[in-house]
Specification:
Elements: H1 6-14, H2 19-27, H3 29-35, H4 38-51, H5 57-66, H6 71-74, H7 84-91, H8 96-111, H9 118-134, H10 141-157, H11 160-172
Helix pairs in contact: 2-5, 5-8, 7-10, 8-10, 9-10, 9-11, 10-11
């Protein structure tokens, strides 16, 4: 075990049969990310975490609470697109506390943006919203609920063009545009 990299050790703990060990591992995911290069976080850790979205709720809750810390570890906000699939998965989890925590983490990330970053980041979430809305089966309810929870922050950041796209998403979600 002495020769294991931090990522390999994390994966080993995440595959343990004991849910407490897996939960404690997920509590340390931001520390693991800080020990890796941004390339390893983007190309190995995030894809691995996407595969773990079928875990127990307590483990996903830990992951949802930690994603807010990932921006520096992925190489900055310009690399946010690599996290969108993970966020989208967490937004679609059945357990309300997991989804709410993921939404809270995203809102914290959005609140930290400077004006030069707004358009690019909002575009990522608009595309995610369009994907969630385009799914035809009944699996989109949770994703739609999550979208609503980040709309106010997205709308605050959006330029005129993005506000129009957000209004379209809101309309498809059944929310009257007069709210915003």
């Amino acid at each position: 075990m002495d020769n294991l990299s931090p990522l390999d050790f994390f994966k080993l703990e995440c595959s343990n049969e004991d849910a407490m060990v897996r939960t404690e591992a997920m509590q340390r995911v931001a520390v693991i990310a800080s020990l890796l290069s941004p390339d390893k976080v983007r190309n190995e850790l995030i894809p691995y975490l996407i595969t773990k979205t079928n875990e127990l709720d307590q483990i996903l809750l830990e992951l949802s609470s930690k994603i807010r810390h990932f921006i520096p570890y992925i190489g900055g906000i310009d690399q946010l697109s690599v996290m969108i699939p993970l966020i989208e998965q967490l937004f679609s989890i059945e357990e309300t506390t997991v989804r709410n925590c993921a939404c809270n983490s995203v809102n914290i990330i959005l609140a930290q943006l400077n004006s030069a970053q707004h358009s690019m980041v909002v575009n990522h979430f608009i595309e995610m919203g369009k994907r969630i809305l385009s799914i035809e089966d009944g699996e989109t309810f949770y994703g739609k609920v999550s979208l609503v929870q980040i709309m106010a922050e997205l709308f605050r950041l959006a330029d005129v063009d993005n506000k129009a796209a957000l209004m379209e998403i809101l309309g498809k979600l059944g929310i009257r545009s007069s709210i915003y």
